[in-house]
Design brief:
The protein is an alpha+beta fold. The chain folds into three domains: 69 residues, Orthogonal Bundle (Multidrug-efflux Transporter Regulator, Chain: A, Domain 2), CATH 1.10.1660; 37 residues, no CATH class; 160 residues, Multidrug-efflux Transporter 1 Regulator Bmrr, Chain A (Alpha-Beta Barrel). Helix content is 41%, strand content 20%. It contains nine helices and eleven strands. The protein has an eight-stranded antiparallel β-sheet with strand order 4-9-11-10-6-7-5-8. A hairpin with a 6-residue loop joins strand 2 and strand 3. The longest helix is centred in the first third of the chain and has 33 residues. The chain is elongated and about 80 Å long. It starts with a strand and ends in a 9-residue tail after the last strand.
Length: 290
């Protein structure tokens, strides 16, 4: 006990308030070495000063408390690696936000941001197809991981049980997916054997909410983008370009917008074309040029 520091002395040495120390104790970041059973007073070991200062520095990196608890429980080298991984995520987020700033400045000033280049708009007729689909309400941060997992499940089922994949998979956005809006979005994989698809969806696919349904024939207006342009917010400029083209042509949107993925994502490079941003359009609109 003679070697322990009272919470007041410890707060002074770490430049942390007693309130912060109590919070860190509740989070398991910095539990006191001893709590007096009669008074409830907290006492700390002198060597905990360094741990407390590490917690403060990690908080200045905007690291969540739960992540800090994991970091302080690691050995020195692994803790350093975890900090590096956290900072890499921050830099990635800042890069995306920097690009978003450029996009917003161009949009608000009614100038097309040069960073996005130009988008050529085409149209194509797609036939009716039978699809396995998985629909979910999901926010932006969880969207990529869910799409990857869903495509993996549906493509595996299509290849092994439903006669194979007949057309490019696509993701339909029935409503906005943002930080504040959760869609829903729907992953669709066209399959060759409707009967087998219905059977799999009714059985094994039920745990993921898989459906087997007909996707109607449609005329799509689309622009083709690279893997680099799929990253948010670049992809928003592609959607804007198609919508502006529809308005100029006097055409009506006839269904939910979608992204059609026609090549292997893992092997594609940043400048390889991987995706069509597409809108179904009404056939009764103005003449559409290919």
């Amino acid at each position: 006990m003679d070697e322990l520091l009272s919470i007041g002395a410890f707060a002074a040495r770490t430049r942390l308030s007693a309130k912060a120390l109590r919070l860190y104790d509740r989070q398991g970041l910095l539990p006191p070495a001893h709590v007096d059973a009669a008074t409830g007073y907290r006492y700390y070991r002198p060597e905990q000063v360094e741990q407390a200062r590490t917690v403060v520095l990690l908080r200045r990196l905007d690291m969540p408390l739960a992540d800090i608890a994991a970091v302080v429980g690691l050995d020195g080298e692994r803790a350093a690696e975890a900090v590096g991984e956290h900072w890499a995520r921050i830099e990635e987020r800042f890069a995306a936000q920097r690009t978003l700033v450029d996009y917003l400045r161009g949009r608000l000033s009614r100038r097309s941001p040069a960073v996005y280049g130009t988008f050529e708009i085409h149209t194509t007729d797609v036939p009716e197809m039978f699809v396995l689909s998985e629909r979910r309400h999901v926010f932006t941060d969880a969207l990529p991981a869910w799409i990857d997992a869903s495509l993996g499940r549906l493509e595996k089922a299509a290849a092994e049980l439903c006669g194979g994949v007949t057309e490019s998979p696509f993701v339909v956005y029935h409503a906005e997916v943002t930080e504040d809006s959760d869609g829903p979005a729907e992953v669709c994989v066209p399959v060759a054997d409707p009967a087998a698809a219905r059977e799999w969806a009714a059985g094994h696919g039920r745990q993921w909410g898989v459906r087997a349904r007909v996707e109607p024939a449609a005329r799509l207006a689309y622009t083709r983008i690279t893997k680099a342009q799929v990253v948010y917010p670049q992809i928003i400029a592609a959607y804007d370009a198609v919508e502006e083209w529809l308005a100029r042509e006097g055409l009506t949107q006839a269904g939910a917008c979608r992204e059609v993925y026609f090549t292997d994502w893992e092997t594609a490079g940043p400048e390889d074309q991987v995706c069509d941003v597409a809108y179904p359009v009404a056939r009764s609109g103005a003449a559409v040029s290919e």
